[in-house]
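The data layer described in this paper is built around a simple, fixed record for each protein. We quote a single record here, exactly as it is kept in our systems:
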Amino acid sequence: MADALRGSMDAAEYKHVVLGLLFLECIFDAFEEPRAYVHSFAQRVHFAAGAAWLQSEAAKLDAAIAANRKKLGYGG
């Protein structure tokens, strides 16, 4: 099977390809957990930023409603 995959490439040259792929797989596996942590952290930060924006927009809306109520004479 390996002979069919490597074709006319010498086995000594082919081992560099295979070892390189194995190295990349090890590196990918080593960074998978930290990458998942960073992704979940980014989601939490994005949610917090969205919540802060929503809170500021609600405050603006409350101020606008209070100003309109005051103009119309409904409370102070």
